[in-house]
Design a protein that fits this description.
alpha+beta, GAF-like_dom_sf, GAF domain-containing protein, GAF, FRMsr_CS
Length: about 170
């Protein structure tokens, strides 16, 4: 299948419905987690405005370990409960952070980042990892982003065979 970049417009609800439909088509027929996470990170990077990092951390060896992403080099390992990613993994609740500098224990991989959203990836009760998106714009993410990106993770889970993750 070839991928054709398209401009996704409209209100955030419409934007995310179109983005998630595009993700569904992009991942159709592929179940490898590395390939699908790489394409998902790229799709986010292409379509989300005012972001400077989009990618995944995977739960392995009792910590979050850097997975496929788009952006500057990032922190490789994040302990459970540390920073925004570690907090999302520990609580299993999406974290929407309007000002990362006000977040206790924030891990600054890129000094330009000002806001962040992190969505836990769960299969049943099993923690798989997190989707992490940073922005240089304060208060970039809101409830509509949370809902849209939680649905994005649901589409990922539909296509990925997580049992193959080492």
């Amino acid at each position: 299948m070839s991928f054709v970049a398209m401009k996704i417009e409209g209100d955030k609800s419409t934007f995310y419905k179109e983005l998630n439909t595009q993700l569904d088509h992009l991942l159709a027929g592929e179940s490898d987690y590395i390939a699908n996470l790489a394409n998902a990170a790229s799709l986010l990077d292409v379509h989300l405005d005012t972001i400077n990092w989009a990618g995944f951390y995977l739960w392995r060896e009792e910590q979050l370990i850097l997975g496929p992403f788009m952006g500057k080099p990032a922190c490789v390992r994040i302990p459970l409960g540390r920073g925004v990613c570690g907090t999302a993994a520990e609580t299993r609740v999406t974290q929407v952070v309007p000002d990362v500098h006000a977040f206790p224990g924030h891990i600054a991989c890129d000094a330009a980042s000002r806001s962040e959203i992190v969505v836990p990836i769960l299969v049943g009760d099993r923690l798989i990892g997190v989707l992490d998106i940073d922005s240089p714009v304060p208060e970039r993410f809101d409830d509509a982003d949370r809902e849209g990106l939680e649905a994005f993770v649901e589409v990922l889970n539909k296509h990925i065979d997580w049992s193959r993750m080492a």
